[in-house]
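EI: anyone free to look at a 168-residue chain?
SC: sure, send it
EI:
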Amino acid sequence: MTFLNSFLKTFCVGLIVIVVASCNEAANSGNDKIDHADSMKKVATQVEKIVAISDTLIIDQTCAVIVTADSSQIAKRKKELGQDFYVGEDDYAFYLNETQTFLDSVKLKIIDCNGKKVLKFIYGDKKQELINLTKLDELWKVYLFDPKRKSKSVDMTMIDEEYKDYFK
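SC: here you go
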């Protein structure tokens, strides 16, 4: 008897699901194109939000952030400066290496924001600072950050002095 009761309950639930699904399909049959288009817009919006989030580097801890230009920014600067670009690039490479060596020696965490378009610093009081990395005046930059004080873009040629001044 219990087997028959279980079977009947399962059968009734299945029948109800089929009827409800059929009713929804019949009610929406005239709106298929609209619903599909709306669904595609929702998916596209969700993808844009995910891309926007992945383009942002969120920093909420004491560290140094190294900003490096992407290939399109470098190509644009090469076009603007011509052969002079390579002199500056060599200097930046040298000082960036010196900066990384110094920061390693003081055991400060280094975060590279390669491929990111926005840098978001979150302070201890939950205030935020956004920096649009595509609009910077320099192709390579270093920021020092401590959640207790304002972030600072530092001069790589004087990294030891900048570090001491910021973290005193």
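EI: Residues 2-28 form the longest helix (27 residues).
SC: 👍
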